Amino acid sequence: MKYPVTYQEYQESLSRGEFVGLKCKKCGAILFPPMAVCRDCSGSELSPVSLSGKGRLRTFTVVRVAPEGRIPPYIVAMVELKEGPFVIGNLIGVDANEATMALMGQRVRLGSRPVKGDLYSAGDACALTFSLVE
Amino acid sequence: MREVAILGVAMTRFGISEKTNLEMFAEVGIGAIQESNLEPKDIEALFFGNCLGAFEEGQLHMAPFAHSELGLPISAPATRFESACATATVAIRHAALLVGAGVYDIAIAGGTERAAKMGTPLATRTFAMASQAQHESTAGITFPGVFAMAAHMYAEKYKVDLPVLKRHMAEVAVKNHYHGAMNPKAHFQKEIDVQTVLGSMMVADPLQLFDCCPFSDGAAAVVIAEANKARELVDKPVFIAGMGQASCGPLYLQKDITRVRAREEAIRQAYSQAGIGPGDVDVAELHDCFTIAEIMAIEGFGFYESGKGYDAASRGETRLGGKVVVNPSGGLKAKGHPIGATGAAQVTEIVEQLREESGARQVEGARVGLVDTLGGDLGTVCNIILTI
What we know:
- The complex is a heterodimer.
- By secondary structure, chain A is mostly beta strands.
- Chain A folds into two domains: 7-50; 54-132.
- Chain A has one helix at residues 7-15; strands spanning 20-24, 30-31, 46-50, 54-63, 74-81, 86-92, 107-115, 125-132.
- In chain A, a hairpin with a 4-residue loop joins strand 5 and strand 6.
- The longest helix of chain A has 9 residues, at 7-15.
- The termini of chain A are far apart.
- Chain B is of the alpha/beta class.
- Chain B has two domains: 4-119 and 216-239, Thiolase/Chalcone synthase (Peroxisomal Thiolase, Chain A, domain 1), CATH 3.40.47; 142-208 and 242-329 and 342-387, 3-Layer(aba) Sandwich (Peroxisomal Thiolase, Chain A, domain 1).
- Chain B has helices at residues 21-35, 53-56, 63-70, 87-100, 120-128, 143-157, 162-180, 194-198, 227-233, 251-254, 261-274, 291-300, 331-335, 342-354; strands spanning 4-11, 46-49, 78-81, 106-114, 202-204, 207-208, 217-226, 238-247, 283-285, 325-326, 368-375, 380-387.
- In chain B, the strands form two sheets. Chain B has a ten-stranded mixed β-sheet with strand order 3-2-4-7-1-8-12-11-9-10, with helices on both faces. In chain B, strands 5-6 form a two-stranded antiparallel ribbon.
- In chain B, strand 5 and strand 6 form a beta hairpin.
- The radius of gyration of chain B is 19 Å and the shape is globular.
- The relative contact order of chain B is 0.20.
- The chains are: A mainly beta, B alpha/beta.
- Chain A binds chain B through residues 7, 33, 39, 58-70, 74, 76-78, 80, 85-90, 99, 101, 104-105, 115, 118, 120-122, 125-128, and chain B through 120-122, 124-126, 128-129, 133-142, 144-145, 148-150, 152-153, 155-156, 162, 201-207, 249, 251-255, 257.
């Protein structure tokens, strides 16, 4: 078995501003980030597909006690992409101290930002970001 | 499967300890063996739980060292289990499976952890290692953050105003501290009120400090044996009537995080094996790592319909004397949460409740008890149903 789109390939696509997911040939589900088999039907015939980057914010928190190496406060959110997958990332462009339940359900646009690796991680990475759509 | 029972149980006081992981585990391991009227040479296998020894003490491969601390024979293999916060429950389940299958007649299982020793920044970082490293940890998610996101989603999904939900969540903490104040082994033995919770610092909106369990040090262990052997050895063996365990991937794949799919499957297995339903449970030790987590758990067990369990603590229904007593030990919230030991301490509490040894916090007439431990960001749940 060849891993369809590796983490490194996914990361490179993020740094180009693209959102590469996978489409399952068997059931049509979209997977993002890419993984080995379809989460819905275990299908292994998956082909790369470009995602719209559109979604809605489904929940969030403001992290005020951070892991070692992070500076709080910052907003972590879960977003439902237009194509179906949920993803976790940081809501940017909103003051963490102004975050309220009014954010729930808001339309967002996907982006990414570089994150420095720490002593315990495998190195620098691109993490997903969300920006509110006016 | 042969019938399996629990004999002796033991736990340290949970809290801040200067003892090593091995010292704490030796105390409870030897304690549980002695309470079972056994000697170390009688133990055929050790199922050992520890999560973060590498960060706490620079110690990997702790199981064989625990084995020699207990004086177990070389023929008894010692194996380390790691399922984040569900570690010890998973170890106990696997011990019970192998005793049930006839591979061993007598085994010991449990865990030890020095979570407090790490201090908050490193402990927060290492706990967050139980989130998916590439796609979740990069966003700086923390464990309070995971359950905070669940709380916001719960409020939105069930149309409960956030301040209302937060007040009911605070009542979960008040109830568990009330129970913990009666537990001489608890990390916090002090009652609090709703204002204590709502006036405490914000950790991850909407969770405040007193919505969260502490980082704790501690150890717990239980001895497991084939049921006939257990009846010969002790007066009140406690029987494992049903068990379940399920797995459910990273948080982002779970989508609706107000429901823990792994719990729904694990408890289905456990109820089915025990031949009981939610109405038969007298007492539960469940995974209240955060106040919202207790609400999610009582709904997951079917004690309450989804979206209807949030005010159970406020109505006194889960308190001592209520219709199903939840976390009489004080739960993770007040008893404490040394993650590798937590499940064994939950089993210890239920065993002592069923043997009517729980003193002021005794649940009158308890015959059926439920243990529930959740690991990681909802990825592992292990349930054990105990009867006497």
